[in-house]
Design brief:
Blueprint: E1 7-10, H1 14-26, E2 33-36, H2 39-46, E3 63-66, H3 75-83, E4 93-97, H4 102-110, E5 115-118, H5 123-140
Parallel strand pairs: 1-2, 1-3, 3-4, 4-5
Length: 150
């Protein structure tokens, strides 16, 4: 299962994670989803380290939904590492956060984020936003084919 992940959800708030998963399930896009609770776990998952060392690192998610304000390693640092590594730089990353701070938005785009979404406060708005994101990044978006490393 961990080798065929479509969505990597990086969210420390369990309530927001549950709402995101529920919204994706509603449009049948949560079958291949993995939820990790902080930036450290996200990097371990992507690069097949630590508790994810059994996972094959060549099988990358189609999209990463990433919160900014998290313990251990925050979302900005995760984004910096993802976009700075040839293995992971083409994975679409969508920041999903409650932060409307202009500097967070600027930093995210300077580091290469694909989209920055401020989480709607009400459940219906949140569910609609997550469903639209999932449909776009998993069904509409055309990512590059994986390159054969020789």
């Amino acid at each position: 299962m961990l080798n065929y992940v479509e969505v990597l959800l990086v969210e420390d708030n369990i309530h927001d994670a549950e709402m995101t998963i529920r919204a994706l399930k509603k449009v049948n896009l949560a079958n291949n989803l993995v939820h990790v609770k902080d930036g450290e776990e996200a990097l371990e998952f992507i690069y097949a380290r630590g508790k994810f060392s059994d996972r094959h690192s060549a099988h990358l998610p189609k999209v990463i939904l990433l919160d900014i304000k998290m313990p251990k390693i925050d979302g900005i640092e995760v984004l910096k590492q993802l976009k700075g590594n040839p293995l992971s730089k083409t994975i679409p990353v969508v920041i999903m956060t409650s932060s409307k701070e202009e500097q967070d938005i600027i930093n995210s785009y300077e580091l290469g984020v694909n989209s920055y979404v401020v989480k709607p406060v009400d459940f219906e708005g949140f569910a609609r936003a997550v469903s639209q994101l999932g449909l776009y990044w998993l069904l509409t978006n055309q990512p590059p084919l994986p390159q054969n490393k020789q």
